[in-house]
Design brief:
mainly alpha
């Protein structure tokens, strides 16, 4: 039953993406898209590289940090520490990119650092909130059957907090994909190479192509993460 539901949702998602692509082809014309085919593929790879590495680092730092802050001894300091992780969201994305450029230089590395900072807070916050929201009765039951703290975390707390953690990852991914085009301004390749020249040159088709590619990229990644959530936790994943 769960498999059939997942297949139906995947089919609807694929149908929606095809409909959006068809609308894009109808609006811009197949010749415009063919002329930009190489750019779309190359910039898509570059965009994916920025998102992949920045999200990988954000997950590697954010999830362990959220787990640590959710422990009883650290909860009193959690909100203060959270402000450190909030630096990427408090400052405007362009300011974060500019600061990263000043410290590291131009190119992919400062862009990855800036995207990492922008993606960090939702992961830390949702990991912390999800673990803190695990019912006390489950914790007591785990303690009652003799689980160690590590076993309780792996087998009870994280599985119950997973839907909330996944929501944070999805939010962070959407922020990351939407911010990545700005990396063009500091010398990193992304779909910003279509969006910003389209703005400067008043080239409407190129602008729309870059913006639509970014939006579709974000939509596809979000659908993949939602599908992953349903596979890993079919009864609770959103």
């Amino acid at each position: 039953m769960q498999d059939s539901t997942l297949l139906k949702r995947a089919g609807l998602a694929a149908l929606f993406i095809v409909a959006v692509l068809a609308l894009l082809v109808w609006g811009l014309g197949i010749d415009t898209i063919k002329a930009r085919q190489v750019d779309l593929l190359y910039l898509g790879q570059q965009h994916l590289t920025l998102v992949f590495w920045s999200m990988l680092f954000a997950l590697a730092v954010g999830i362990p940090s959220g787990i640590l802050l959710s422990r009883p001894f650290a909860r009193r300091w959690a909100e203060y520490v959270m402000q450190i992780f909030n630096v990427g969201n408090t400052l405007p994305p362009l300011a974060v990119l500019a600061l990263a450029m000043v410290v590291i230089g131009i190119g992919d590395r400062p862009a990855i650092v800036a995207l990492f900072l922008a993606s960090l807070l939702p992961i830390v916050r949702n990991t912390y909130s999800g673990l803190c929201a695990v019912p006390a009765s489950l914790i007591e039951a785990a303690n009652g059957i003799g689980m160690t703290k590590g076993q309780r975390l792996r087998q009870v707390e994280i599985p119950n907090a997973w839907p909330v953690i996944l929501s944070g990852i999805r939010i962070a991914t959407a922020i990351n994909v939407g911010t990545a085009p700005l990396a063009f301004l500091i010398g990193a390749s992304s779909y910003g190479e279509l969006i910003f020249p389209g703005i400067y040159l008043n080239d409407f088709p190129t602008l729309i192509l870059g913006a639509a590619a970014t939006a579709l990229f974000a939509l596809i990644l979000d659908m993949l993460l939602a599908g992953l959530g349903r596979i890993v936790s079919p009864h609770t994943a959103a």
